[in-house]
């Protein structure tokens, strides 16, 4: 038996992370693709639910950007505030209405007074609302559940 224990100890390997690996992947991160484009992975969301998403978007459009008009029936920009740490960019708050399909990919376009644009692509996997509750990333908050899943009515009569 002692021989078996020795081989398992030898087979164990240590996990090493490089220094550039983020150890906190649980928040919403706006990842730049190019100077005028970025993407955000919202993680797993539930169908027919409405979420509020807040994140920082660093860009070179300046301070004078406008909340874009409705560009998607699923995503609405509800608030924009200039970053307070001196970085060029804004803190963005979105309201996202999840469809019944299995994935979400929408692009919204921000524009400044000089008509320079910045495209933001949002992606998410959408699970059926009857399959449970997904763990939400930091920066994502449930605003409203699906109409069929939030009923107070029950058949249970109690004790």
UniProtKB/TrEMBL annotation:
<protein>
    <recommendedName>
        <fullName>Adipose-secreted signaling protein</fullName>
    </recommendedName>
</protein>
<comment type="similarity">
    <text>Belongs to the ADISSP family.</text>
</comment>
<dbReference type="Pfam" id="PF15006">
    <property type="entry name" value="DUF4517"/>
</dbReference>
<dbReference type="InterPro" id="IPR026794">
    <property type="entry name" value="ADISSP"/>
</dbReference>
